[in-house]
Protein: dTDP-glucose 4,6-dehydratase
Organism: Sporolactobacillus laevolacticus DSM 442
Amino acid sequence: MKLLVSGGAGFIGSNFIHHMIKAHPTYTIVNFDLLTYAGNLENLEDIRAHQNYHFVHGNICNYELIDYVIDQYAIDTIVNFAAESHVDRSITQPDVFIKTNVLGTQTLLDAAKNKHVKKYLQISTDEVYGSLGSNGYFTEKTPLAPNSPYAASKASADMVVRAYFETYGMNINITRCSNNYGPYHFPEKLIPLIITNALEDRELPVYGDGKNIRDWLYVEDHCAAIDLVLHQGKPGEVYNVGGHNEKRNIDLVELILDKLNKPHSLIKHVSDRLGHDRRYAIDASKIKTELGWQPKYTFETGINETIQWYLTHKKWWQKIRSGEYRDYFKKQYGTA
Ligand code: NAD
Ligand code: DAU
């Protein structure tokens, strides 16, 4: 395979590139990333010199550049991770979410269609389904009902991907995964924020009553699912991915504090997120029965690995929190 991985310098994208280099060392991998505040090439420092890995600094809204890169590397497969991904930022600045997540996806699809790329995989999210009550699960047939500007932009992108399958017969797949956690998770998101704040004895902001539920999956299990869909996904199909690890935010925060031997008094209840979805929970039986995917990590093993990673990679997150790495990339690539 000759893969273009857009958004490969972010959290899941960089874990996916590590996964693919290990699982398929002969594949060509082109990481195409704009290096926004969330993109960090340090995530890939250890494989920078690998002969089959290449980095291209670019925007998924730039048709000409994508077109050129597909030719240059004879790309036959595209996996699109590139997105604005943080719900809170989408509430204060929705426009960039629509541009990148919707128009960027359509631009990538156009380039893929015109160059006859063999497969296009869109990395989507369970947030497109909206919010659950205390019972039930999201299946692939659950109607889309996004509640945040972020979720609306991802749902819109999914609709465009679907349309390119129906209209042009492109070989597409969409995966919709629940909340990921693990190495290289940007410390604005709940788990890395809690770990890093607790390690520095800072307050831990918990939105509202803290009883919102998220369904957590260790990032390596998500990457293995994407690998499987790339190779065995049936054209036009959507696959939900999730590990049945539902946790209330407050319970999760207390669990992390206990593991770090830090006091619960660090917790600070703050104003709720606008339009805050109450509960997510994924039914992943389709990918399990049709493609044979199974998560390898329990929540216990995944969270222990994650905490250990943040303990042994203090420099990585301290640089991000200080903004030092952004100054470096601004100098290198002219992007902040
Ligand atoms: P992230 O914010 O960590 O990374 C996003 C990457 O995309 C960054 O490297 C950024 O520089 C790049 N990017 C942003 N705009 C770009 C553009 N216009 N052109 C090229 N590159 C651009 O995000 P993540 O958490 O790794 O999520 C990756 C994908 O997975 C997203 O599409 C997200 O919607 C989806 N997803 C995330 C989760 C989760 O829990 N994090 C769960 C399910 C699905
Ligand atoms: O479900 C998949 C989605 O998971 C992805 O599509 C998104 O890209 C990803 O960011 C994530 O979205 P969430 O909004 O669920 O993740 P976040 O880490 O921002 O928040 C998790 C929960 O914790 C949510 O209920 C809000 C709450 N929270 C979050 C932060 C940052 C807090 O209570 N305090 C916080 O400081």
Summary: DSSP finds twelve helices and twelve strands in the chain. The radius of gyration is 19 Å. The pocket of DAU (ligand 2) is lined by residues 85-87, 125-127, 178-179, 189-190, 193, 205-207, 212, 214, 249, 273, 280 (CB under 6 Å).
